[in-house]
Please model this.
Amino acid sequence: MNATRRTRLHRTPEWSALGEHREQLGDTHLRELFAADPGRGTDYTLQVGDLYLDYSKHLVTDRTLTLLRELAAATDVFGLRDAMFRGERINTTEDRAVLHTALRAARDAVVEVDGENVVPRVHAVLDKMSAFADRIRSGEWAGHTGKRIRTVVNIGIGGSDLGPAMAYEVLRSFTDRDLTVRFVSNVDGADLHEAVRDLDPAETLFIVASKTFTTIETITNATSARNWLLTGLGAGQEAVARHFVALSTNSEKVAEFGIDPANMFEFWDWVGGRYSFDSAIGLSLMIAIGPGRFREMLDGFRLVDEHFRTAPPEENAPLLLGLLGIWYGSFFDAQTHAVLPYSHYLSKFTAYLQQLDMESNGKSVERDGSPVAWQTGPVVWGTPGTNGQHAYYQLIHQGTKVIPADFIGFARPVADLPSGLVAQHDLLMANFFAQTQALAFGKTPDEVRAEGVAEELVPHKTFRGNHPTTTILASELTPSVLGQLIALYEHKVFVQGAVWNIDSFDQWGVELGKVLAKEVEPVLTGDSAGEGLDSSTAALVSTYREIRGR
Ligand code: F6P
Model:
């Protein structure tokens, strides 16, 4: 890594140029930008694999885009990108390489970490996962009593839950409908209880997913699940081998828990938790959709990796999306970023992106530890349309905040949608197109008046418009398209972290709460007096204890 200290972002001439340009742009309206350039709607687009990306409804001109790309060049985004792909230890605070891209490398590719080509190991695990998934799907793998597995329960949290849980929903139409996959993450016992209450232990497989295998929520739930299984089966420890497998980097802890290391699917410390879904962490998804479909998804990831690695700046979609986010965050004071998929299957997609983006770029110090003097990662939020339209879109349309939004939609409904429901797809997509149109162009007071609206209601019925959106349209929701979408966002997040000069691959901010919870727990149970607690926490804890009769 380049050890020389770089000029602080807000002191670079490129940053100042963007500031000046922003002032010149003033209140320029998207209506004006579209009127001035009839080709805008097709010129400001990119095609990446199966994704058609329209960025014409952004508050940018050619000059804005040039200045943003100059900022990317000045901050050496592509230099850091190349270092990542080369396997350099760009996660400096944890001294680790960042190689989720190796998880989807072709079998004959070479990606070295400390002089070792890791690709054969990646494919060995993929092959082992495939063989296991096939055995579960075919019924060849039987439980302790000889019954075939009907339900898979993935126990994990954060990056060991959100990816497979999201993708299982996204790719539901590709799943074996005779097999059910459930996900347990919360240490609230209700989560496990609701997941297993109607299951037959003899037909249940638990996948314990944890990179570290020390995460308290996961180990607690896995221990309770083991008790539930053994009690339900009336069996001893020997039953665990047929009903528990582990996904982890920590074989010692897996063995300590009582899972046979032969039933462990490995990954490595150069895979960040929130970037791990295409590693062994995807086993539950692979069982659901089959190894072939899983590999199609990896191909989709790889396609966008290659695009990010090789496309010139003007055509590089992750670069563009990353820079647009910086433009709004620092020059329009946007605090949030909405991701609004027009597909019911993507209902957990934004929740997945929350960890990817907010755990990566929720940072406030530069790589060398000095405080940043600019905005970093946004609050990411959103739910599928059209539901959101009847809830919070009002604020996006007529509120006071700048909320850049991504609209994601598909031209065709999924293949197995019953023919009687196919017609609804046009209605869904009509809303999809209409919303970005309304957000961009709004409705002027004169247009409102022309409809005969009473003058006192004109301000209420006026839509200012000028709300920026990206539209991502794919022909169909397939495993490959899902891989392409996720890689697009992964690299977008990367670009932003590179410009901001933060470490996007550590997550020290989650530690303090974990440590304090360990200190508070014995106070709740009465095993510690809780001396030294602040007055607010002390009062809350004592109220809790009183209610619990302790
Ligand atoms: O606490 C945050 C975190 O470390 C995430 O980064 C990670 O995805 C999650 O916990 C789960 O960690 P593990 O896979 O080690 O159980």
DSSP finds 23 helices and 13 strands in the chain.
